[in-house]
Amino acid sequence: MREYKLVVLGSGGVGKSALTVQFVQGIFVEKYDPTIEDSYRKNVCEFISLQCELIRLLIVCLQEQFTAMRDLYMKNGQGFALVYSITAQSTFNDLQDLREQILRVKDTEDVPMILVGNKCDLEDERVVGKEQGQNFARQWSNCAFLESSAKSKINVNEIFYDLVRQINRKTPVEKKRAKKKSNCILL
Amino acid sequence: MQTVRTVDVVDCSFLFCFSKHSKAAVQIKEDMKWMAQLPMNKPSPATVTGGKKIFGVSLLELRDLGLVKDGVPVVVRSMVEYLEKHSLRLEGLFRVNGSIRTVDNLRQRFDGGEEVDLHQDADAFAVASLLKQFLRDLPEALIHPSIHNPLIQLYQANDVVSDLRKLLLQLPDIHYSLLHYLCHFLSQVEQEQAHNRMTATNLATVFGPNVFQ
């Protein structure tokens, strides 16, 4: 079974845990409990050339302000969801720094990543426009971008599956059919 | 500063919810051992005391520099007064981070000895983040490590109040007076939880790590 290590990052209160719990358990958490860090596992089926292969997602939610372990998570994570809330400008502005930090820790430009504008059900309270998100993502060498709602179940699964697809593209699954070794025997 | 001592220490007790509430969150999970293979990178070191800096300077040194008034660093007082005035009802106060750039800019200006007008140059989330940073940057945690274990034991036993008071009095005067000041302020924040959604447990979770380093 292949394991994917996904890390969800973002400012406090943007809905990192809500998105993850919605994805893993299919419920919306109403409570306003801050997480410092938490991890979840989910086994899912992924279709690779018509064959269903079981994969395991290990998802870590990390509050951006608790910095001590952050580099560690960045180093070990394979795919990153950078989450902001469309209702709070400050949660959006800082993601640039966060992305740069990830690229620095990973020491490469090519990191599976998705920018996520959460709480898109709260259209009335929107302060970050969808185009702003799109533009941001475009500047990030065409990073994937989605607006989501953990509450209304919009684009929740898509976030995590997109990351898995990106990881697969970057490090393709090893092909099963190994070449037959030619038996060359030297006498 | 002496008057501080008469205060009801129960005010502080909610800070210790932290140890119970996020025990699970703070320790590295079993299934996350794969993450713990690398040495931990400490966040950037606190500012050095050279010159008249404010962040990263011990409370005693701040007092010697004349930057403490009535047991509370002037900078803390100005931040708390700002938040009291504008932000007690703000949703996610101390949970939502302020912009990194704003916070950093404010810190540098305070360190450089500039007069900072928070009303003009900052927003509430930035000030809240700055306050937490001030506490994190203290060379010695506000609540000294030597009383961490007794505190946790006390919290697990039920009869908290009188012993808690005794224990907290072991803290240096200046730590005690700042802790008292903050707890008083945080209980004000907590009273507005219907608006700001920051219950005692929530506050303990986001505030605790800054005073228990």
From TrEMBL, chain A:
What name appears for this protein in its UniProt entry?
Answer: Uncharacterized protein
| Membrane found in the keyword field | yes
Q: What GO annotations for molecular function exist for this entry?
A: GTP binding; GTPase activity
Q: What is its main location?
A: membrane
Q: Which domain of life is it from?
A: Eukaryota
Q: Which GO terms describe its cellular component?
A: plasma membrane
Q: Which PANTHER family match?
A: RAS, DI-RAS, AND RHEB FAMILY MEMBERS OF SMALL GTPASE SUPERFAMILY
- Tell me the compartments it is located in: Cell membrane
Keyword Amino-acid biosynthesis found: no
Q: Which GO terms describe its biological process?
A: signal transduction
Keywords noted in UniProt: Cell membrane, GTP-binding, Membrane, Nucleotide-binding
Automatic annotation (TrEMBL), chain B:
Please, which domain of life does this record's source organism belong to? Eukaryota
InterPro entries, per the entry? FAM13, Rho_GTPase_activation_prot, RhoGAP_dom
Ranges for domain Rho-GAP come to 57-213
Family annotation (Pfam families): RhoGAP
Query: Which processes are annotated in GO (biological process)?
Result: signal transduction
Name of this protein: Rho-GAP domain-containing protein
Identify the taxonomic lineage of the organism of origin. Eukaryota, Metazoa, Chordata, Craniata, Vertebrata
